[in-house]
Amino acid sequence: MEEMKRDKRYTYADYETWDTDERYELIRGIPYLLYSPDPAMMAPAPTPEHQSISGELFRQLANFLHGKPCKVYSAPLDVRLSDGSHDDTVVQPDLIVVCDKSKLDGKHCDGAPDMIVEILSPSTAGRDHIVKYKLYLASGVREYWIIDPNTKTVMIHILEGGKYQTSTHEAADTVPVRMLDGCSINLADVFAE
Question: Residue 1 — pLDDT band, cuts 50, 70, 90?
Fold first, then answer.
């Protein structure tokens, strides 16, 4: 694999050729390292706490969605978000919910999922709050959850009128998933030790 250059813009076609044990996201042509088996690369695998939160949230969503048309998927799954003229953005959110099966081609999700969940880590927090927030808003993601394991809070962004309406919830709360009528998530279980 060629050495990544910060001043070069890459496409999804480039991304597909990268033969490496490292995992990247590509946002507007810029590669961001998600995981590397090399400790010197400063992108460790998710922590047990991260995996526990992701697993419990996946379990609650999957149980609710059983037998329904929407499905939940966990990372790593490529989500291509292109604006039609540029095919240079692919992300790997921690969890996604997709209701339109035509967006899934057996390899990746092509277009905005209905819901995205990102679980913060020190290496991704700024990107999740700023870069991905703007990207998901522009792409039309209907519901975007940012989970903070340190504060045990969830920031929920709901797309309404072309803008995100934001609310914050704590570990004791049970919160509705607005895009899934009748679905509520018990955050006490999500943050359980």
Answer: very low
* Three-state SS at 37: coil
- As a whole number of angstroms, the distance between CA 3 and CA 160 comes to 41
Q: Which CATH number fits domain 48-77+91-190: 3.90.1570.10, 3.40.50.1260, 3.30.70.2750, 3.30.460.80?
A: 3.90.1570.10
What DSSP designation does 19 have? Answer: -
Distance CA 17, CA 15 (A): 5
Q: Which of 152, 162, 155, 161 is nearest to 187 (CA)?
A: 152
Neighbours of 48 (CB within 10 A): 8
Yes or no: say if 159 and 137 are a contact pair by the CB < 8 Å rule. yes
Q: What would the pLDDT profile of 102-157 be if each residue is shown by its tens digit?
A: 999 888 999 999 999 999 988 788 888 999 999 999 999 999 999 999 999 999 99
Model pTM score: 0.90
